[in-house]
From TrEMBL:
Its main location: membrane. GO terms for molecular function: ATP binding; ATP hydrolysis activity. CDD domains: ABC_Carb_Monos_I, ABC_Carb_Monos_II. Pfam families: ABC_tran. It is a peripheral membrane protein. SMART domains: AAA. This is Autoinducer 2 import ATP-binding protein LsrA. The keyword Transport applies. GO terms for cellular component: plasma membrane. InterPro entries: AAA+_ATPase (IPR003593), ABC_carbohydrate_import_ATPase (IPR050107), ABC_transporter-like_ATP-bd (IPR003439), ABC_transporter-like_CS (IPR017871), P-loop_NTPase (IPR027417). The gene is lsrA.
């Protein structure tokens, strides 16, 4: 039974930025020893509120209480000292350090005046096994996929002994079995008195793991302390965005006979000679969405890089629109109409310090409306960015603000608008709805459906199995760099697909 004194109490929190009120009179009470979910659209004010609780920003008005005591955080170090840990949606890791070095950084155990790496390694292995996080403490972070990076972030917070844990979209990269493992561990930690603030746009997960739920809409709380047992996903969606919960579905087929991309025997090897993409063959026709399901780190990233010309293929061919493009550089592929939504919008999709109109040009700077001959056409880029903001509902004060000022969902809509504006014939979409709310998610599904109906060929990579099943005409499973199964999106379940992804079961025939 949670203690009478709440772990966290936020009272009348208000935070203003030039031209916008991010938080307005927000009240939030989180009981000790509970999993409390915070829901809301991207741009609703969740991130700002969490930055205030974690000491990254200071409120203009309002009070924060931790365990019944008023506090004033000037930095995250103050919050950490009070037992608050935060796992950010976008990771805060040093690529050139090992997992162990990242986890202990700033909290190094010592023995006889030296860092006790043996003790740290033993503790990390013990925690990794206890929480089902399965990471190697001695591997360099730069070699990890997105899923493993997320697990390192969770380990890093737990290592510091956090009693109040803020998790921002922690399941975005996990398959259903891994999600269940994480939730089981969260329930165990809750039983031991840990308080968890769980931020997610996946409402079924919220209802599965949370004890209570609060909803923020347009900067203020519209519902607080709702018992998860007494509310439904459609009700939560309506509180968040004023409409019913969207579902990924394609409805009628638009697949044509015209093959837009044909990959044959494609192999990509590491510097050590290991095949990370192993004899992959697939084809995508115009008007078709081909889904690719796989646990993070099974060759998806290397396959995408080979298709985009970022990484050379060791063998095999890539034929695009009837032309062999295997040896083409990335720029030539882009100019030929290959659009690309990268898996990590911060590291690969945007220059966060750049303005929206400058980001509109990325990857398309040699084509109209961004250029005239050899010259950048600033006026054309600005005009088209204004159009993208309007047509793709990018919520922003203007096109001259830096991309970093936008919420995750609005950053993603800007990227989607940019790539769709290049009139692509093939779109490689890696995790296009990762970490965004139901409103932005529904909008991106609509854009993909419309483009598919107009003849776009799409390769869709996602960790959201419901999305893959609902939005794919054809669905492949990749495991250790090989396509091991082709399944029917109309009949396969997320559990069957998850089993095929981990090699634990068969969801279809090898393809």
């Amino acid at each position: 039974m949670p203690d009478q004194v709440p772990a966290v109490r936020l009272s009348s929190i208000t935070k203003r930025f030039p031209g916008v009120v991010a938080n307005r009179d927000i009240d939030l009470v989180i009981a000790r020893g509970e999993v409390h979910a915070l829901c809301g659209e991207n741009g609703a004010g969740k991130s700002t509120l969490m930055k205030i609780l974690y000491g990254m920003q200071r409120p203009d008005e309002g009070e924060i209480e931790i365990d019944g005591q008023k506090v004033s955080f000037r930095s995250p170090a103050d919050a950490i000292a009070r037992g608050i840990g935060m796992v950010h949606q976008h990771f805060k890791l040093a690529d050139n350090l090992t997992v162990l070095e990242n986890v202990i950084l700033g909290a190094e155990p010592t023995r006889l005046g030296r860092i006790d790496f043996a003790a740290a390694r033993a503790r990390i292995r013990e925690m990794s096994q206890a929480y089902g996080l399965r990471v190697d403490p001695d591997v360099l972070v730069e070699r990890l996929g997105v899923g493993d990076r997320q697990r390192v972030e969770i380990l890093k917070v737990l290592y510091r002994g956090a009693k109040i844990l803020i998790l921002d979209e922690p399941t975005a990269v996990l398959v259903p079995q891994e999600v269940e493992e994480l939730f089981a561990n969260l329930r165990e930690l809750r039983a031991e008195g840990l308080t968890v603030l769980f931020i997610s746009h996946k409402l079924d997960e919220v209802l599965s793991v949370a004890d209570t739920i609060s909803v923020i809409r347009r900067g203020t709380t519209v519902a607080t302390g709702l018992p998860a047992s007494g509310v439904t996903a459609p009700q939560l969606a309506e509180l968040m965005v004023g409409s019913e919960l969207p579902t990924p579905e394609l409805r009628e087929s638009t697949v044509t006979d015209e093959v837009q991309l044909e990959v044959a025997g494609l192999t990509v090897r590491t510097a050590e000679g290991r095949a990370v993409v192993d004899e992959v063959s697939l084809r995508i026709r115009r008007g078709e969405i081909v889904g690719l399901a796989g646990v993070e780190g099974n060759g998806q990233g290397e396959l995408i890089e080979a298709l985009m010309g970022i990484r050379p293929a060791d063998s095999g061919t890539i034929v695009y629109g009837g032309e062999d493009v295997t040896g083409w550089p990335t720029r030539r592929r882009r100019e030929a109409g290959i659009g690309y939504i990268p898996e990590d919008r911060h590291r690969q999709g945007l220059i966060l310090e750049g303005t929206l109109w400058e980001n509109r040009m990325l990857g398309h700077q040699t084509r109209r409306p961004n250029s005239r001959g050899p010259w950048i056409d600033k006026r054309g880029a600005r005009r088209d960015t204004t159009r993208i903001v309007r047509e793709y509902d990018v919520r922003t004060p203007g096109i001259d603000v830096p991309a970093a000022a936008l919420s995750g969902g609005n950053q993603q809509k800007l990227i989607v608008g940019r790539e769709m504006s290049g009139e692509p014939r093939l779109l490689i979409a890696a995790h296009p709805t990762r970490g965004i709310d139901v409103g932005a998610q529904a909008a991106i599904w609509d854009y993909l459906r419309s483009a598919r109906a107009a003849g776009l060929a799409v390769l869709l990579i996602s960790a959201d199995l419901e999305e893959l099943i609902g939005m794919s005409d054809t669905l492949h499973v990749i495991l250790r760099g090989r396509l091991v199964a082709q399944v029917d999106p109309g009949t396969v379940t997320p559990e069957e697909l998850g089993s095929a992804m981990t090699g634990a079961g068969r969801a279809g025939d090898a393809g």
